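Usage

Read records sequentially. Each one opens with the input sequence:
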Amino acid sequence: MLLDWRDLSFSPEELQLLEGTPILVRTGRRSFYSTILSPDRSFVRYDPGCLEAVDERGRAALGLADRRLALASPNVHTWRRGDILIIDNWRVLHARGPSDHGSGRRLARILIDA
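and closes with the structure output:
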């Protein structure tokens, strides 16, 4: 499932909330503080599995993102054998739907520096 975060049509006030509210990002290696929207508004950081609100504004920001994403209509890629999908990880929110874990799925990450 793929969704350009700019298609979520946040209002200027909502963008300010997402850009100015600190959240805790918990990772396996280290945790750090960030915001959902980058300061230059070039990307959104969103993964409900590792983001944690640190205050009421953080809960509001995460709730806003949750609600907006629940109403979104992502593009769904139907995989066929041999498919390769390249996405802009800074612009596109992406997720998988239910899948057959025995499908032989492989994921390769490649950095293309332009």
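Summary fields computed downstream for this record:
- Helices lie at 12-20, 56-71.
- The chain has a mean pLDDT of 86.
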